[in-house]
Amino acid sequence: MTLKYEFPKGFWWGTATSGPQSEGSADVDGKSKTIWDHWFEIQPERFHNGVGPEHTSTFYSNYKEDIKLLKETGHNSFRTSIQWARLIPNGVGEVNPKAVEFYNNVIDALLEEGIMPIMNLFHFDMPMCMQEIGGWESREVVDAYAAFAKKCFELFGDRVKHWTTFNEPIVPVEGGYLYDFHYPNVIDGKRAAQVGFNTMLASAKAIEAYKALGQDGKIGIVLNLTPSYPRSTENAEDVKAAHIADLFFNRSFLDPSVKGEFPSDLVELLKENDVLPTYEANDLEIIKNNTIDFLGVNYYQPRRIKAKETEVNKDVFMPDWFFDNYEMPGRKMNPYRGWEIYEKGIYDICINLRDNYGNIEFYISENGMGVEGEEQYINAEGVIEDDYRIEFIKDHLAWLHKGIEEGANCRGYHLWTFIDCWSWTNSYKNRYGLIALDLATQKRTIKKSGRWFKELSEQGGF
Ligand code: BG6
């Protein structure tokens, strides 16, 4: 068969999930609480339908069957995360043998099925005991995280050859310290800047530990890139505003991760506003010397930006002092999640990485479409006919293909997600999986997209 879009040999086809969103068993076998378990205890009303982080799928107890489903849906690679609170329940010190056994079993089962594991080390799941001593505001936590990362490499690095230090490190900064959608619900740009810096330092320290062990794998980071488009490219104020949004939300982690340096204009802007984070003498050197081997790109939506028009409260420093979001007329929206769908964004990312980031090796580590009420698409055989998801993937892959043809160094495509999973405050509102989950019975049913994904992977394109 001739394929219109043929991807390179060995392309990674798969999905991503995370420990806290899929494992369940939140308080068994010695796992301690994360900030999510704690926040749900004190404010359950902040979670959609009052469904908290203990209601995930049951990957912890059902991983063997689930990994068979990975195979059935054509995966040759899969990302999940190791929960710090499960592996080292006190944040530092003693390792939980039950967790070691679990993650060993998962890794071995994946490899037995010929599925390459990509293990991530932090997916928003700060252990509560670490948050109690300051979370990412604390250098003690930075060092504890680096020690946790080193332990993971020692325990699992003989088989795991692709690691990522963080998933979307900007999100806990935005959610936890700017816009109140993660614990600890602080709204303070100065503290946010410190949290961002310390997270970047933690990533570099984990990379340093990995390199020191001399293992023969690769280490990277997963960033959610949101290309920033100005309302008008002819209006200098719009262009400047989009540039500043890009500095805050993309380049704050992208530049130090790939190039080892923060963008000088971001540093200047923080300095002028007296919110530059504090750091120690050799922190910048650690960041400089420990850049990534490969990048994971989560792409969901772009940012549409216009010059600041609305009034701002100047009491507390916020990125929003410098730009407004622009509701571009006619843009295509995912009505359920409220996110714009702009397929070409994935191509623009390819070209940006090719031209401005040394053509770094990357893969699409998340892309996906969250939909409410998918039950309405169930056919007579009980299968969800999610043609909209297949179209969504195809449209993005077509642009990704063009980026690769033009020289972008992209190694794979992972969809968010494998089995419908629990999601932060949205709980089960939006379903993203190739496989439907009945939360009450835990029954898994492959959706039409899951069957199609297998074909896509086996053919190497469509
Ligand atoms: C990414 C995260 O931001 O998007 C996932 O890495 C998350 O953890 C996914 O679930 C989808 O977002 P949401 O909020 O719709 O679940």
Automatic annotation (TrEMBL):
The active site is at residue 366. One of its GO terms (biological process) is carbohydrate catabolic process. InterPro entries: GH (IPR017853), Glyco_hydro_1 (IPR001360), Glyco_hydro_1_AS (IPR018120). Keywords: Glycosidase, Hydrolase. GO terms for cellular component: cytosol. One of its GO terms (molecular function) is beta-glucosidase activity. Belongs to the glycosyl hydrolase 1 family. PANTHER family: 6-PHOSPHO-BETA-GLUCOSIDASE GMUD, GLYCOSYL HYDROLASE. This is Family 1 glycosylhydrolase. It comes from Turicibacter sanguinis.
